[in-house]
Design goal:
- 34% of the residues lie in helices and 23% in strands.
- With 128 residues, the chain is an alpha+beta fold.
- Strand 1 (4-10) and strand 2 (13-21) form a beta hairpin.
- It is elongated.
Length: 128
């Protein structure tokens, strides 16, 4: 198997990953997964597709994560891993889709508008 290269995005986070056959080593920005995502919940989110298909010990993953916060990065990583697994084994798509990992979450932060304190909030209206 050659190296599979995919991309995942969430909010302003971008994950570029390279998947190859190996022993289950996951390196993110030249650091181990547990070091990069110290929170157990973020590790769980990042590894969801691998655990669902039970292939966590089968592939080595090198990732470059950029932008956004920790949760957005973990979810971008999850989408990239899902896309890589579908490229390696197209038969796994229905299982991943049923779990909701295939769809890219389109929600972005709405921009602040001029003449308003925030995106939707208005300054207090005074009649007199």
């Amino acid at each position: 198997m050659e190296v599979v290269n995919t991309i995942g995005r969430r909010k302003s986070a971008v994950a570029r990953i390279y998947v190859s056959e190996g022993k289950g080593n996951i390196t993110i920005n030249k650091r181990e997964l547990k070091e990069y995502f110290p929170a157990e919940t973020l590790q769980y989110i990042a590894l969801q597709p691998l655990n669902l298909l039970e292939v966590a010990e089968k592939y080595d993953i090198k990732a470059n994560l950029d932008g956004g916060g920790p949760k957005g990065q973990a979810e971008a990583f999850r989408l990239a891993v899902t896309r890589a697994l579908m490229e390696i084994d197209p038969e796994s798509r229905p299982q991943l889709k049923a779990a909701g990992f295939v769809t890219r979450d389109p929600r972005e932060v709405e921009r602040k508008k001029p003449g308003q304190p925030k995106a939707r909030k208005r300054f207090q209206f005074s009649k007199r």
